[in-house]
Design a protein that fits this description.
There is one protein chain. By secondary structure, this protein is of the alpha+beta class. It is about 30% helix and about 30% strand. The strands form 3 sheets. Strands 10, 11, 12, 13, 14, 15, 16, 17 and 18 form a 9-stranded antiparallel sheet that branches. Helix 1 crosses helix 10. The protein starts with a strand and ends in an 8-residue tail after the last helix. The model has no long low-confidence stretch (mean pLDDT about 95).
């Protein structure tokens, strides 16, 4: 079976690595000539709205998935005419628009931070009165890793923030005095079978995820699974879905969901019985889902902008280095390290060692 993937970045690369033991082949559609999934797949180098390329992708593959949300709706509609596309288009469309996403959570009775739609400077001025300060002005679409966001402080000139936003449709989201950030990786198969990974506790810096740690028997696990189960069923979802939360006074407030495999689940490659990437593929091709239990202690650390020497990572027992084949540059995710072990004291020493390596900061 050949799987088509919209996007050719590191998520597509890791999906292919998980799929080859299952006898799967891959074709990626990505406009980047140096797409890091290209060495592992047939690469159609074209824009996502190139109809000829989309027809080529459809003709070469048995079904199609994607590694990121910012794909034109018209392109997905074209592919859906002849191929099964998973996760479903509705999940993609809602997940890429922050206003529609927040409204969906409210519809499902899942709490969020206070928010308001902003389509003009006048809207922003009114929204600040309702939501308060500090707050974050976020573009409705295409923002990730801190992009498309403006912090609204007590002294921020709103006209300046609106201009910096480029006048794009946005939402204003109130700050939540959270105690921590967590996420859940959930998966639902074509038959409706669901599985949930242990919660990940996440550390961000400058809007970029730096570290995710798998948590066994966390007190918020049941609440997170309940929210995820409701969302998966409502969307008739197929594949892996990630939901990010803020924990506030013993309650989880949802931040956003990602209709795809997710950075905060990379620890599952070595730290869980079945990785998020393998379970995504199992779900979309109709295989039984694999166990999601955590092996001992596991965490993932992103490498941002720099790549450490391999020997400085692999000298540690239980350390694994994943490089994406990307050229380093400031702010770019070029790889990640996973740590896995049973002994908490040794695990802490491993983490102290990794903190000193190039590409690691904010943890």
């Amino acid at each position: 079976m050949r799987i088509g993937i919209l996007g050719g970045g590191q998520l597509a690369r890791m999906m292919a690595l998980a799929g080859y033991p299952l006898g799967l082949d891959f074709t990626v559609l990505c406009p980047a000539e140096d797409a890091c999934a290209a060495p592992l797949a047939d690469h159609i180098c074209a824009r996502f709205d190139d109809q000829s390329a989309l027809h080529e992708l459809a003709g070469k593959t048995d079904l199609i998935t994607y590694e990121f949300e910012n794909v034109p709706a018209e392109s997905v509609d074209l592919l859906n005419a002849n191929n099964a596309v998973y996760p479903p288009t509705r999940a993609l469309m809602l997940g890429r628009d922050r206003l529609l996403e927040k409204n969906l959570f409210n519809e499902l009775g899942i709490r969020t931070a206070p928010f308001a739609a902003v389509d003009s400077l006048a809207d922003l001025e009114q929204a600040v009165k309702t939501v308060g300060r500090p707050a974050i002005l976020k573009s409705r679409t295409e923002g990730y890793d801190g992009k498309g966001q403006q912090l609204i402080r007590e002294d921020t000139v709103l006209a300046d923030a609106w201009q910096a936003n480029g006048g794009a449709a946005a939402i204003l989201e109130g700050f939540v005095p959270f105690s921590r950030e967590v996420s859940i990786i959930a998966v639902r198969s074509r038959s409706g079978e669901m599985a949930f990974y242990p919660l990940s506790e996440n550390i961000h810096l400058d809007g970029i995820l730096r570290l995710s740690r798998g948590l066994d028997h966390d007190p918020m696990q049941s609440q997170a699974e309940g929210h995820a189960r409701r969302l998966l069923a409502h969307l008739d979802y197929v594949g892996v879905l990630a939901i990010e939360f803020f924990e506030h006074q013993g309650e989880l407030l949802v931040n956003e969901y990602a209709p795809r495999v997710h950075n905060s689940g990379h620890w599952t490659i070595e730290g869980a019985e079945t990785s998020q990437f393998e379970n995504h593929l199992r779900a979309i091709i109709g295989l039984p889902l694999g166990p999601t239990n955590l092996y001992g202690r596991a965490l993932m650390i992103n490498l941002i902008g720099e790549i450490p020497a391999a020997q400085d990572v692999l000298v540690l027992p239980g350390a694994h280095l994943h490089l994406y084949g990307k050229r380093p540059r400031p702010g770019r995710k070029v790889g990640h390290i996973t740590l896995h072990g049973e002994n908490e004291e040794r695990f802490a020493l491993q983490l102290d060692h990794v903190r000193k390596l190039p590409g690691v900061s904010g943890i």
